Amino acid sequence: MSLAMTEAAPATGTSRWDYVLGTWKELDVPEGWRAEIVDDNGVVLVAPPSDPHNYIAVRITRALNGVVPDDWDVYQTLGIQLPAIERLYMPDLVVMPESVVLDPEQTPCPADAAELAVEIVSRSSRDVDRKKKLWGYAHAPIPLYLLVDAWDENGPSVTLYEQPGNGRYNQATTADFGDKIRLPEPFGLEIDTSRFPGPDEWPS
User: Which Pfam families match (predicted)?
Assistant: First the structure.
């Protein structure tokens, strides 16, 4: 479930992006919800994730924590901005250097500093995660985008997008739930998807 928020016109001399970003910063978001800017309609509130969604996020986080350097971290509630295309996402998971996260002059964090973004598709986020964020992350560019999609029409799958260029990813590798998918260096990690819950295990 998501709720779009109507925005007023920015004041004279204020760019649209600065205005929308300022609105995002001032929001009093309900606990567990997230605020994102995924298209030209302004700020959108996204409902808290389901238990299967959280479970997958934890499994991936555990795997990543075993390989990321000490000066990187894995975040679940970190906003990242893409000012060139006027977007602000809060990925389900994002790997970011701590030097960027702790820099007060880089708030929200610039998306192009991220090493990896992960989105876990829910019933309500299919179009956003598969299309809008795929486009956005490629434009950032973020070098790796991992899409976990229990709702894939061809069967539950995980797709790793790599080699961003010219606003798109130039390589994609897909593995079915139950198989492993390898993240290249600097991770050098195989993620085991055998315990990821399929669509029958998600709430209706």
Answer: Uma2
Q: Which residues contact 111 (CB under 8 A, 6 or more apart)?
A: 80, 81, 82, 89, 117, 136, 137, 140, 142
Residues 6+ apart with CB under 8 A from 22: none
Distances (CA, A) of 131 to 31, 103, 174, 197: 27, 30, 16, 23
Could you give the domains of the chain?
49-201 (3.90.1570.10)
pLDDT at position 15 is 87
What 3-state class would DSSP assign to 27? coil
pTM assigned to the model: 0.93
Low-confidence ranges of the chain (pLDDT < 50): 1-7
Report how far residue 185's alpha carbon sits from residue 144's, in angstroms, rounded to the nearest whole number: 10
Cβ atoms 67, 189 nearer than 8 A: yes
Report the C-alpha gap between 104 and 100 in whole angstroms. 9
Ramachandran area for residue 37 (φ above 0: left; ψ -120 to 50: alpha; else beta): beta
Question: Can you give the pLDDT at residue 2?
Answer: 44
pLDDT at 8: 53
Determine how many CB atoms are found less than 10 A away from the CB of residue 192. 12
* Cα distances (Å, whole numbers) of residue 84 to 73, 78, 110, 190: 25, 19, 11, 33
How confident is the model at residue 204, as a pLDDT?
80
pLDDT at position 40, please? Answer: 87
